[in-house]
Amino acid sequence: MQIIVTPNDIIQRCLWDKYKRFCLHDNNEGEIKNIVEANKPVSLNENDAYVIGLLKIIETDNLVHRFNDDVFDFLQIKSSIIKEDLYISKYAINKFVTSYYDKFPDYYKPSVSYGKGLVDLRAYIKLIEERIGNLETITIKNRDKLFTYFVAKDIKKVLDT
After folding, report:
1. pLDDT (tens digit, 9 = 90+) per residue, 72-99?
2. Which of 23, 40, 56 is the last residue of a domain?
3. Which of 48, 58, 138, 139 has the fewest Cβ atoms within 10 angstroms?
4. Same domain (yes/no): 43, 110
């Protein structure tokens, strides 16, 4: 089965970073910029669409909601059980939040309604970064190495859901 989408569709579904990583890995940055600017339909096979997550996404311009869903999914996958509580690595959650900007390339020109959602998302991510920075951390020593964690439910509390 072939799925026809445009780069604009992929970006609006917050999948650009995965599409770039798995489908455009052989292209240089100039070619990728031209692909986004041309916005010509591309054909994806079912496997590629599954890998980048296109088959489970519903389109919305409420990007803050999409971000919150992605954070919840990330916490479910990456949290560790330590002393009967769920913890998330400080490095992992910080990297996830700051790399969320990669889903929207700098040379992408959104529509007006989607552009407003993108502005709201950027402001929201900055707010979340501040809130996460103020959270209490737990340091655990394991084999002469220190690991810093947040309590996973504290991360959920800083999100405006």
Report:
1. 999 999 999 888 889 999 999 999 999 9
2. 56
3. 58
4. no
